[in-house]
Amino acid sequence: MAPWTTDDIPPLTHRTAVVTGANSGLGYETSLALARAGAHVVLACRDQAKGADALDRIGREIPGADVRLARLDLADLASVRTFAADFSAEHDALDILVNNPGVMAIPR
């Protein structure tokens, strides 16, 4: 049996995905793969400058990708409420949620 790769992702046209921490690392790569498969991808990022850079990189790699940036700081409940309200107002459904935490080496 061949190993699974992102080429095995089925077409995701008409699917909406939210990826937290989408501006770098696994979050970025996940967002890129979902966009390549045709999903509408919301890059949920705390740092809007880094998120904008990720959005630009995806746009250059996949021209016409259906990707947008949204501010989401999971440490700030007001940010979470705003994100949820904005997302609900703009989308009928959420098909894929990738919770990609960006916290490491926090003090005890």
State the main characteristics.
108 residues, alpha/beta, four-stranded parallel β-sheet, 3 helices, 4 strands
Describe the structure.
By secondary structure, the chain is α/β, with parallel strands linked by helices. 37% of the residues lie in helices and 18% in strands. The chain has 3 helices and 4 strands; from the N terminus they run E-H-E-H-E-H-E. It is globular. The model has no long low-confidence stretch (mean pLDDT 94).
In spatial order, strands of the major sheet run 3-2-1-4
Percent strand: 15-25%
Helix percent reads: 25-40%
Number of strands: 4
| Molecular shape | globular
Mean pLDDT: 94
Total of helices: 3
Helix-strand topology string: EHEHEHE
Tell me about the biggest sheet?
4 strands, parallel
Given as residue ranges, the uncertain stretches (5+ residues, pLDDT < 50) are none
Q: What structural class do the secondary elements suggest?
A: alpha/beta
* Termini Cα gap: 44 Å
Radius of gyration: 14 Å
Structure described in brief:
This protein is an alpha/beta fold and 108 residues long. The protein is 37% helix and 18% strand.
List the helices and strands and how they pair.
Elements: E1 16-20, H1 25-36, E2 40-45, H2 48-61, E3 67-71, H3 77-90, E4 96-98
Parallel strand pairs: 1-2, 1-4, 2-3
